[in-house]
User: What shape does this take?
Amino acid sequence: MNGNGRLSAAVIGAGLIGADLATKITRSECLDLGLVVGRDASTPGLRRLAKAGLPVAADGILTLVERDVPFDIVFDATTASTHAEHDRLLSPLSSLVVDLTPSQVGRMIIPTVNGLEALSHRNVNMVSCGGQAGIPLLHAVAARHSIDYAEVVTTAASASIGRSTRLNLDEYIETTQDAVREFSTIRDVKVMVNLSPAKPPVKFRVALTLLGADLTAESVRAAVEPVVERMRVFVAGYDVVTCSVTDGKAFIAVEVAASAHRIPRYAGNLDIINSAALRVAEQYAAVRLSTVGAEMS
Assistant: This one.
């Protein structure tokens, strides 16, 4: 805990996800952004963050490892292939590592499903943007029904997909499928991703198709509505735009509009995974800070 009563936080990566996450952290009441690290001072993300007055460094993860005092929380917004090495380097430290890549190195976390598990793990994985949008709904519906098959189709504007995410597409699909199976117990799962070049850019959308003998419109809507309320607590632009059932086939479509602080409204994919990561970190911080307060009283 730093001198202003907040937990210190650092972000690895200054791409589309990392830059938006850094901005979100600056608005947090219990986290203090200490550093954003990249590997090249000339990258647009680091330059923009530096111009905005945020603390940046261009020596990569070694900047964090070589610090005398570790950050309380480190967010990794790079790639799945590099996260394993980052985790190895950070493991001797006391930091909570929040992984925004689909690496599956740490415990997979969906805030409204198992968010508090972050308190008992050193490394937590935020699955994917499609997973954060769709899994809360799948978890809720599967708790009421026996689902034979689930199809998850994510559509995002090409302009909202950075280089790291494009490199992670195979891992994105595999990790999202694994997370759907774990959190919904549905065994037959198919995940697809569409990167849309349309202009104007399309809003981030996740379409869910479910097959199950006992599905009804009333029961599915009863499962979905509370999820929307819980999600909007930390993702204001989360909205189920379609929810229908015909002959044992349910179709649910969710759209996410970004909060539009530094990213466009259509980039809900960035907004939801960063908001989910921030939610987990702030819940962790609330417990840590309350514990410190109790010890000092």
